[in-house]
């Protein structure tokens, strides 16, 4: 049973962001002889790690005067950053315009509309195309005089993770962390946490976990950003070096196929009661690989990015999975 700490009262939504628990992943830990710990970012009020980027970007914009009272925040997002920005905007008195590829999960689309975002769906196009959701969001911000959050290249994103996520992980492990792994969309989480941990202990291994269809694995390994394959994961994978990733202290990278990630998603759900999305599956699969490489007795930390309910029509849909030649867990 948990004891009640009556002195800890969060100051509104913003005060409830961060300070998430580290959860020992029992089966992954037992299988590797290591402590594999997941930072439970799905417990943020907006349901994902992106709440941290949202508040970091908004507070930075308030400090610099780029965002003024009653203003409008505009962002291109795979969904979770849009959710975090919209909720913080609601709490702070701003409007929000969210531009999102129409290929993202139905659950995220519906949720964004439910919480009051002005949602603009656009066809999924590569970054080099002017119709890419990021470029569309920038143009909308210019047209309406809004503040463009620019999560990919606004380094307030990684700075927020350096000051909060990374610092929390160091404190929660008592400085006993040997490796950290995380997938990248903007790169803010991996870069910020990596910077924080390396500042405390330079031997900590920072490892980028990458899905198929992304060029970041090749970039870390050989400087080649050419992507190959494809993935059903959302919000991760990239074929350019964002400002948040530029100069990040990355020691290695692992490529995780969808089937390996899904195995962890299903395993965490049915054996540990943890409902997580596909990016978390990539992260945990990478953490297991790193733990096996390091050998027993080490501590590996990763990010539990968001909850599985956001992907019910994809990750937990047998018809969808079979259509992609991916494994279907028996209970579905």
Chart the SSEs and their pairings.
Elements: H1 12-15, E1 22-24, H2 26-32, E2 35-40, H3 50-64, E3 72-76, H4 80-92, E4 95-101, H5 106-114, E5 118-122, H6 133-144, E6 147-148, H7 156-172, E7 179-183, H8 188-200, E8 205-211, H9 216-222, E9 252-256, H10 258-272, H11 278-294, E10 299-304, H12 318-323
Parallel strand pairs: 2-10, 3-4, 3-6, 4-5, 7-8, 7-10, 8-9
Antiparallel strand pairs: 1-2
Short account of what is shown:
This is Cysteine synthase. The chain has 332 residues and is an alpha/beta fold.
Description:
With 332 residues, the chain is an alpha/beta fold. The chain folds into 2 domains: 14-45 and 159-323, Rossmann fold (3-Layer(aba) Sandwich), CATH 3.40.50.1100; 49-148, Rossmann fold, CATH 3.40.50. Helices cover 41% and strands 15% of the residues. The strands form 2 sheets. The protein has a 6-stranded mixed β-sheet with strand order 1-2-10-7-8-9, with helices on both faces. Strands 5-4-3-6 form a 4-stranded parallel β-sheet, sandwiched between helices. The longest helix has 17 residues, at 156-172. The mean pLDDT is 96. InterPro entries: Cys_Synth/Cystath_Beta-Synth (IPR050214), P-phosphate_BS (IPR001216), TrpB-like_PALP (IPR001926), TrpB-like_PALP_sf (IPR036052). It comes from Acidiphilium multivorum (strain DSM 11245 / JCM 8867 / NBRC 100883 / AIU 301). Its EC number is 2.5.1.47. Pathway: Amino-acid biosynthesis. GO terms for molecular function: cysteine synthase activity.
């Amino acid at each position: 049973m948990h004891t009640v700490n009556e002195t800890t009262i969060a100051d509104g939504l913003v005060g409830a962001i961060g300070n998430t628990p580290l959860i020992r992943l029992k089966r992954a830990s037992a299988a590797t002889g290591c402590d594999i710990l997941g930072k439970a970012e799905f417990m943020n009020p907006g349901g994902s790690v992106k709440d941290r980027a949202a508040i970091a970007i908004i507070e930075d914009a308030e400090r610099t005067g780029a965002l003024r009272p009653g203003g409008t925040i505009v962002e291109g997002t795979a969904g979770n950053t849009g959710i975090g920005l919209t909720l913080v905007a609601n709490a702070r008195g701003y409007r929000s315009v969210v531009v999102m590829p129409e290929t993202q999960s139905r659950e995220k689309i519906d949720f964004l509309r439910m919480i009051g975002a002005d949602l603009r769906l656009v066809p999924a196009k590569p970054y080099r195309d002017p119709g890419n959701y990021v470029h569309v969001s920038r143009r909308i911000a210019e047209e309406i005089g809004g503040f463009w959050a620019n999560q990919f290249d606004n380094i307030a994103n990684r700075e927020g993770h350096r000051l909060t996520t990374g610092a929390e992980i160091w404190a929660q492990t008592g400085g006993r962390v040997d490796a950290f792994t995380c997938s990248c969309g903007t790169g803010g989480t991996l870069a910020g946490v990596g910077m924080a941990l390396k500042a405390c202990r330079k031997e900590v291994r920072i490892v980028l976990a990458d899905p198929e269809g992304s060029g970041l694995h090749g970039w870390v390994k050989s400087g080649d950003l050419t992507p190959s394959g494809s993935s059903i994961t959302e919000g991760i994978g990239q074929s350019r070096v964002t400002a948040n990733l530029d100069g990040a202290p990355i020691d290695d990278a692992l490529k995780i196929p969808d089937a390996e990630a899904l195995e962890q998603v299903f395993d965490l759900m049915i054996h540990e009661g943890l409902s997580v999305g596909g990016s978390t599956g990539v992260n945990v699969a990478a953490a297991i690989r790193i733990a096996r490489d390091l050998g027993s007795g080490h501590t590996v930390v990763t990010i539990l990015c968001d909850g599985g309910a956001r992907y019910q029509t994809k990750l937990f849909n047998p018809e969808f999975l079979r259509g992609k030649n991916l494994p279907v867990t028996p209970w579905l």
